[in-house]
Design a protein that fits this description.
Layout lengths: L1 H30 L3 H13 L1 H11 L7 H10 L1 H7 L6 H8 L1 H13 L9 E5 L2 H13 L4 E6 L6 H15 L3 E7 L10 H7 L4 E4 L1 H4 L15 E4 L3 E5 L17 E5 L2 H17 L22 E7 L7 H12 L3 E5 L7 H12 L3 E7 L5 H16 L3 E5 L8 E4 L3 E5 L5 H6 L2 E7 L1 H16 L2 E2 L2 H5 L3 H12 L5
Parallel strand pairs: 2-3, 3-4, 9-10, 10-11
Antiparallel strand pairs: 1-7, 2-5, 5-6, 6-7, 8-14, 9-12, 11-15, 12-13, 13-14
Amino acid sequence: MTGIFATYWAEILAILSLVMGTLAAVHATMTKRDVRSAIGWVGIIVLSPLIGALIYAVAGINRVRRKSLISRRSRRFEELWKRLSEYGVPREVVADKFGSRMAALKSLGDTVGHHALLSGNRIDILHTGSETYAAICAAIDAAERSVILETYIFDRDPAGKRVADCLAAAARRGVEVRVLVDAVGARYSVPSIIGYLKDRGVPVASFNGKVIVGMRLPYANLRTHRKIVVIDGKVAFMGGMNIRAAFEGEHAARDTHFRVTGPVVADIFAVAAEDLNFETGEVLTGRAWQVAVDDGVQGGPAFARAIVSGPDSNIETNHKILMGAFSTAEKSIRIMSPYFLPDNILLAALFTAARRGVVVEIVVPSQNNLAIVSHAMTSQFAQILKEGCRIYNAQGPFDHSKLLTVDGQWAFVGSSNLDSRSLRLNFEIDMEVFDRDFAAAIDKRIDAALYHAEMLSFDALQARPFAVRLLNRVFWLGSPYL
């Protein structure tokens, strides 16, 4: 056998390249939803059939098919949905309180989302890592029945160990605890937190670990980017904050997280429970995992909906909601994002809004933790400014917050960045909130970032050396995969 390969290795390699390249090109053509993505992958495969096919096998194939699982979830939570329906918000109520355009946005959410807009919620803003981790630990310490935690990055550092020790203490006193950490995110610290949790008796699983087979691929696809903690079915934490010490201290990186109570907690819990079931097969039932729906006030503020996105039947839900929001805006669109690389469809919606007279403000960090992304973002800025939008570089430490408001009465917060990875490849969870007080609080957070921000100008961006602009455009070519 070795002799045959040594003699005919060139022919064998050619046949292997032809077969693998053909199969990969056909798969990309038949399965990709976006024509540019399909053309890009086919081009890579044609240029290098063997290597291109291997790259496509690792990074291009969506291996997650969860439609049947989500169907089973719908049946499993059928009784819960009935209870939640009492807190549903009719379109006419939204129209009366927020206007007909916001009522249309509410109807869009009803159509493309898998969860209802619910009344009677309270959402508290947590402004720092120290504040967030203290609140999460206090809630875990007070847990009586159950804790479920799902996150992208969970570092084995002082912040991570503090949360892990609280989880272990809860498990020792009889609380049902489940932890789900993304397989890539768990590898941001070595050794990972997973072994630390297992050694202390905490049931933990890694999400989609089979895809990477032990490799550390920081930009691997199909990750859970969700950050969820639910305690006793009553209190939830969600937002953009991972669990790592980099967000604690005077000069730490910044982020924004949220403490949530009310009926929407039930939907947040259902998302985490579904992800756990997908990875482990475990179904969370029994008294420990009951959700306290009746904690809300029917008809009371805030009106909130869980927006669930991912490369399954929820694909591009966040993208669709944002398109609707940008089209709905009459006065203002305010965006704060660490990774602002929207596709041309979202950019066109922003440009159209700006031409209609809507004030479009975009805040990005002046210091980004990912230099490649910073270069790619900057390559788009001149075009964005030319179309009438405003861009600000927030000074100070890196800010990881993902915040968005429209007309001072609608907000969109959670784990989604405005890039292709979050809008198409990651599993994300966000909330849309119809509430003027909450939108005002988010606007205040954005105003604080703007206070010392630098407003960018078209002329200054165009005056940069050609080599710098070319470098930015080269990185921009890879933006669908950053």
